[in-house]
Design a protein that fits this description.
Blueprint (H helix, E strand, L loop, with lengths): L12 H14 L4 E5 L5 H7 L8 E6 L3 H8 L3 H7 L4 H13 L5 E7 L12 E8 L5 E6 L5 H20 L1
Parallel strand pairs: 1-2, 1-3
Antiparallel strand pairs: 3-4, 4-5
Helix pairs in contact: 1-6
């Protein structure tokens, strides 16, 4: 059972995270995260489960473009050309987290949790999941204007689903 997040999360999310960590542990796989709009919420959830610390290697909170480039070795031109909230950047984030960690699987999240600049779609989130030796998976979601917390919770739910799919 998670210790600090329990009251704030929807029913089923803790169970899903626990199941995911158990499966990763059984397969001797380590996880990493690269998060932008969720601000480390996925990493917090995965590290809040007692007895599973050996499964999680590290989390990158890369809210700014500079952080994405510096910490995950993403070319600035890619972010400038594609936009920080794009398939290309999400994939580069996941692959960068995988390359810069001891993890076997890395999940990336980048999106607009709340209102942004003109033309930014509130609730648009891109996900990517990289696993050593496999093609990186991508998923795009349009959660709509459900508020910053709503988008973050919805994004973590999708991230857990993607991680479970990649574990097989």
């Amino acid at each position: 059972m998670a210790e600090t997040l329990d009251p704030a999360l929807p029913n089923g999310m803790l169970t899903s995270a626990g199941r995911l960590l158990k499966r990763a542990s059984e397969q001797d796989l380590m996880l990493a995260t690269a998060e932008s709009c969720t601000g480390g919420l996925l990493a917090t959830l995965l590290t809040d489960m007692p007895g599973r610390s050996h499964v999680f290697d590290r989390g990158f909170v890369v809210y700014s473009t500079a952080a994405k480039c510096d910490l995950l070795n993403i070319e600035r031109s890619k972010v400038d050309d594609c936009g920080p909230v794009s398939r290309e950047v999400a994939v580069a984030m996941a692959e960068g987290a995988l390359a810069r960690s001891a993890a076997h699987i890395a999940l990336a999240i980048t999106g607009f949790a709340g209102p942004g600049e003109p033309g930014d779609e509130e609730g648009l989130v891109h996900f990517a999941c990289a696993r050593a030796g496999y093609l990186t998976r991508h998923r795009e979601e349009h959660f709509g204007a459900i508020g910053r917390s709503g988008v973050r919770i919805a994004a973590v739910t999708v991230a857990l689903e993607m991680l479970e799919e990649v574990l097989g």
